[in-house]
Amino acid sequence: MIPKKSQETILPIITRKFSSNSTISTNEHRSYSNLSQLGFFHQTVCHKYEFVNSSNGVNTQSIESVHNEMKNQIKRRKGVKTEN
C-alpha cells in the first residue's frame, strides 16, 4: 500500500519497479503528470467524463478491480504482517 499519493512518493516507486519505455495507464491524478518526462509511455483516462477513453480504449478498471480485491483480503485478515 502506498501511504501518500504524492509525486514524491509515487514516482520513485514507479521508476524502481518499471523499465523506462513501459506503457503506464492511469487516471488523470496530478501525481502521474511527469511519467512521460521520465521516459514512460503514459496513457490516461479522465474518470470525470468516462471510464474508458473513447479515443484509445485506455482504462484502469482491471487494476482497480485487483486493488479492491486486495483491500478486501487485507480487511478479512485484519491487516498486513509487516515483519518476516
UniProtKB/TrEMBL annotation:
Transmembrane parts of this sequence: none
A Pfam entry, by short name: DDE_Tnp_IS1595
Domain ISXO2-like transposase: 1-75
Protein name: ISXO2-like transposase domain-containing protein
